[in-house]
Every structure is written in structure tokens, then in C-alpha cells.
Automatic annotation (TrEMBL):
Designated name of the protein: 16S rRNA (Guanine(966)-N(2))-methyltransferase RsmD
EC number: 2.1.1.171
KW Oxidoreductase (keyword) present: no
Organism: Hallella faecis
Keywords: Methyltransferase, Transferase
Lineage summary: Bacteria, Pseudomonadati, Bacteroidota, Bacteroidia, Bacteroidales
Amino acid sequence: MRIITGLYKGRHFEIPRSFKARPTTDFAKENIFNVINGYVDLEGMTALDLFSGTGSISLELLSRGCSSVVSVEADRDHARFISQCMKKLGTDANILIRGDVFRFLKSCHQQFDFIFADPPYALEQLPTIPGLIFEYNLLKDDGLLVFEHGKQYDFSDNPHFCDHRSYGSVNFSLFRP
């Protein structure tokens, strides 16, 4: 796993083979960040990375200038790996929460400039996540939600939907308040 650009550009992290999480491919990550740059300037923003997995997106967000990133990951080993990556970078701008994303969404009282969610594609509650983010008012008025999902989902009827991008089997739907 590598960081594509920014402060930590080119840094590599070896993901343990035992991990169930699949990091967003470099190709998809690079392309979706090019799209994101057309919507928001990440410099100085607060970001939320839901279902952080390997921490690839959190690392990229920090490298691109986010002032703080909250990473939510339920798996103990994945959370430990994210913590180790942040220590290797020497950053304290990451707040790692090891816990259930749905519990976090319900109890969070903070708003974010940018939210990235990459749930497991087989997650039964996957289609509910964009609605919950808006129901709990977690995105600032000029914020952006990027939601990664499989090709079987179509969120274009969501009132907050603004864009869809597809890179191979990886799909992203973008939402704004």
C-alpha cells in the first residue's frame, strides 16, 4: 500500500497477508482523489474515514493536508496496523476509533468537511449508510461524502447524490448536503 501524493508521497506500508480488508486500488484511489479535488480542497479540512480497513484513505487524506482525520475501524488487527502506520509517519493528526461504525454514526456529535466510507461490499446495511450520514447531520454544509460500493448499487435517486464514478469493479458515489 502506498501514499500517492502530498506530504508523505511515496511512503509504502506492507499489509499483513492475514488481513481481510482490501485497500482501494492505487488506480481507483488516484482517480477518485482527482475527482475529489474538483469538489473540495482538502487542505486544513476535518475528515472522517469510515470502515478504515488498512488506513490507506486516512493516510492519503493526511498526506494531502487534512488537519485531522477520524478513522473508524472495528477489527482489532486492522486498527493496530493503522496505529502503527500513523506512528511511522510521526503524525498525531489521526484519531483512531476502534469500534462499530453504526454505533459511531449514532453517537457522533461532530461535523466533517469530508467523509469517505468504504464498507465491505457484502455488508447487509451498506445501502443505508449515505442516508444515516445525512440523518445524523455529520457533513458540513459545503462538505463532500465519497461512498465506495459494488456495481450492484445505484444511489442516483438519493436527494444528496451528485456524481458517480467507476474504475473497474470499484464504484464511487458522491453526495453533497
